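Annotated sample (chain length 193).
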Amino acid sequence: MAKTPRDAPRAGRGSPKGLSEEDLALWRYVTRADARLPGRDYVEPDDVPDDRSVEAPRDITPPDLPPQPPFARRQDPPLEVGTAAGVDKRTAQRLRRGQIAIEGRLDLHGLTQAEAHRALNGFLANAQGAGKRCVIVITGKGRSDSSEGGVLRRAVPHWLDQPPNRGRIIAVRHAQPRHGGAGALYVLLRKAR
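Output written by the structure step:
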């Protein structure tokens, strides 16, 4: 049985009505750049001439589609410190208790916000690229006269929830007192793809 390129519609075959001129024009436009595979026999449909330079029909407009990112990734839920929605119960428990081996450490003490943000982004990218699973980010507790804590302590969870970092992270928890307590965060990373 002879094959047609990409299962071309066959006018008048299998359909009592055949194809309209608009359908044929659309088909010619869609298949204008198809390449033939060597060594294959092709049979053109009766009503579809082999004209690869056909322009798009004027009365057919493509639908307006919203812009898409270069690669679509599932939408991750907002990242909240203290929740571990992306892991099983046992792993979440081990993370909370500080029982997962810490494979990397970033201390942000003494850095400006801009420096800390750049350092955090680079650290997480490198850690994930190196295949590290759990890292610790030390923000410090901030000054004792401030009720909300330090600037970095407030900013780092927000930075972790923004791209590209959010796509690298499964869960974030406050560290155990032996690792810095409220002034440090355990960050559980996804495996690099």
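Annotation: The chain has two domains: 1-67, 89-189.
Annotation: The chain is about 25% helix and 10% strand.
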